[in-house]
Design goal:
With 371 residues, the protein is of the alpha+beta class. Helix content is 56%, strand content 17%. The protein is built from 12 helices and 8 strands. The strands form 2 sheets. It has a 6-stranded antiparallel sheet with strand order 1-2-3-4-5-6, with no helix packed on it. A two-stranded antiparallel sheet has the order 7-8. Helix 10 packs parallel to helix 12. It is elongated and about 95 Å long. The chain starts with a helix and ends with a helix.
């Protein structure tokens, strides 16, 4: 009977957790997707690339929401059970309050494992693939970026100015600056048109002039028609993976090598050096250690069952538990930011979840024994 009761409680909590995670995840994803519209309007990526990038960032959102959603789920479900007198079923069937808390803690450990899995493997991998979509994308929507009287810098190493965009899709008075460190090339054309052949983008220019400057040598020539290829140019979008997109294996390897020596090491997707050591260690702590705050939140929410609903201290206790749990979420976020500043701050961060859990559990045990 006890197992059936706990199974129902865990099922209700898990369903509520999944529902809130999905709902909040979609809301956050939608808001984030709006911010990523610059990939189309400013960088010229296609709608397909845009949706692929945003969808593959969804696991990152879920990973960040897990602690908050877990707190809300445990808090709301316990209150609902208390309001509907369902907690009395536990006590009348011989379930002790300490046993109830232990099962909630076990449930939190399962979600802890889930969060570590998402944070250490699923989220970095999906973000890395999302970055790959941008890297492999060409400037499909380049024509959308072209506006009259505006300098266009959507791709690296290229600046285009269009004086007029005609109704028939052609352009008038075109200036192109295709310069590098060692060479300067500027093109002026009276007219031009964008042509797409398969995956190639060509700017066909008519009646213009090309000016080349290489070192101290300058040469120029006029043309009636010339094809300027846009396919070789990459988008100005950041294509190098960020630290949160790098695999946990590479981050661990980099961290260990930096402990042995401070010499820079070249990895496939990033440079491992002492300048980013704190960032790497912070990312590893976020993926593997920060989830330890979940059992602390679990035992804190269990204080809701100590004071009965007919007590005058019930609502005051409920507010106190809510505030304390919310403060734990804030502490887990803020302490992580300073965890790698020094050895002392790292020791404090590593100690916080264990000390808070022991303090809360011992305090909870004493209170239920005295009730």
């Amino acid at each position: 009977m006890k197992k059936l009761i706990f199974r129902k409680f865990i099922k209700d909590t898990l369903l509520f957790f999944l529902l809130v995670s999905l709902t909040l995840g979609i809301i956050v994803w939608t808001l984030q997707a709006v911010n990523y519209l610059d990939f189309i309007t400013e960088d010229g990526h296609s709608l397909k690339t845009y949706f692929q990038f945003t969808i593959y960032n969804f696991p990152k959102i879920i990973h960040r929401l897990v602690p908050f959603v877990f707190f809300v789920s445990i808090f709301i479900v316990i209150l609902n059970y208390d309001h509907n007198n369902e907690l009395l079923i536990f006590w009348s069937n011989g379930v002790s309050k300490i046993s109830f808390a232990n099962n909630v803690i076990i449930f939190s450990i399962l979600l802890l494992t889930f969060q570590i899995l998402i944070g250490s493997y699923v989220s970095p991998l999906s973000q890395f693939k999302a970055r790959g979509f941008l890297k492999n994308s060409n400037i499909d929507y380049f024509s959308i970026l072209i506006k009259e009287g505006k300098f266009i810098n959507a791709v690296d190493g290229l600046t285009i100015f269009i004086d007029k965009k005609n109704l028939d899709g052609t352009y008038s008075n075109i200036f192109i600056d295709d310069s590098s460190k060692n060479n300067t090339r500027m093109i002026y054309a009276n007219n031009g048109v964008l042509i797409s052949n398969n995956k190639q983008k060509i700017f066909r220019l008519f009646n213009g002039k090309v000016i080349n400057k290489e070192k101290e040598k300058i040469n120029n020539f006029q043309f009636e028609q010339i094809d300027f290829s846009l396919s070789e140019f990459a988008s100005s979008t950041i294509l190098v993976p960020k630290i949160q997109e790098v695999s946990s294996k590479d981050l661990f390897e980099c961290s260990l090598k930096l402990i042995k020596n401070n010499k820079p090491i070249k990895f496939q997707y990033f440079n491992c050096n002492k300048e980013i050591r704190d960032t790497i260690n912070q990312e590893l702590l976020k993926r593997f250690y920060k989830p330890l705050f979940l059992p602390v939140i679990a035992i804190t929410c269990c204080f809701l069952i100590i004071i009965p609903r007919n007590s005058i201290r019930y609502f005051k206790n409920r507010k106190k538990i809510f505030i304390l749990s919310f403060l734990l979420l804030i502490i887990s976020e803020t302490s992580l930011r300073y965890a790698t500043k020094s050895d002392i701050s790292l020791t404090i961060f590593l100690s916080i979840p264990w000390l808070l859990f022991l303090f809360a559990y011992i305090n909870f045990y004493r209170k239920v024994k005295n009730v």
